[in-house]
Amino acid sequence: MTETANPQRIALLPAARAQTPILEVSLPRFVPLGPNPQPRAREFAQDYGPSFFVDVGTACPLHCVYCSVQRGADDKDVRMEAREHLYMRLADGAGAGMLKVAFIGGEAASRPDFMHLADVAHAMSFEDVILATKSVKLARPEFVAELLAHNVSMVHLSLDSFDPAVLAKLLASRTAPKLLLAGLQELLRQEMQLFLFAVLTRHNLPTLDDYVRSIADLQQQYGRRVPAVVAPLKLQSRALRQREALVPPLAEVGAAVAQAIDLAQQLDVTLIHKALPLCVVPRHGAWALERYLAEARIDLDTGDYLPQGPHAYLVHGPDCPACPARALCPGVDVAYAKWRGWAEFKPAASAAADPSPAS
Ligand code: SF4
Fold first, then answer.
1. What is the pTM (predicted TM-score) of this model?
2. Which residues contact 34 (CB under 8 A, 6 or more apart)?
């Protein structure tokens, strides 16, 4: 039986707050960065923020070959955050004025107390409770109904392909792909707000145009918009160990993303990229999520916004200071740059990063 939130307990939490005095948040930019802002990308950022994430731990029943969640050297150290910690993090976000909370993992939906956590978030008056997931449980209509009943209002569905054979390689499973695709249909059927997130690997990059066409078909079938964000693989953990088999050159990723965005424009699909250096998408900088959604940090003791420190995994290279796109460019995955060097990333190419072609 699902537990219900205990408002009395929740009310006590702010006083008990905060083992970590910094809160990382995502804020829609009042004025998007760069020229030619894209209304659909801006709309997406406003749907998603201002938000913060609550990391419930690293447990996950799937074994995706590209997983970048860190679980120790042998991939076996599973972290499960205590509920009290999660309550306090929720209180931190509420105290900082965040309107939306995203539960991330691991697989947040696999926690037995997930519905309870959603209840607690709802009791704290967050406007949106977001679940980032790739759970095969979504294929069960009653599970999606339960999410809605517990006020989960948006699902960030990790779906890298619509092709079960491609998904089977990425998820290292023959059964999970069909269940995940059925889960997407179930979310749409029950009118859950959602967006898709795909990481780009050697397996799914060649069919990125088909990904866009499949979204266009769904939009037609269900009469609603299904935005999608695509990003290169984050080279950590299992993804780093499998890099030779999984990671295409970022120049190839950029070319495929640019082509897919052009197609998406024709088909009225919102396709946004994230964490891509702008010199690999020189004409499509206006679809970079970073232009519409700022990552920021709040000091919970003072309430002050802190200056943006160096990014945890994206860096700039030796030629970047002279690049005209430097101020807008998220940079390059540090592990990718160490592995493949900086030859792909040249200011000369990024000089044409903007203006992007009008949509
Ligand atoms: S040269 Fe550097 S700053 Fe310029 S777009 Fe490429 S990665 Fe970004």
1. 0.90
2. 285, 286, 288, 291, 328, 354
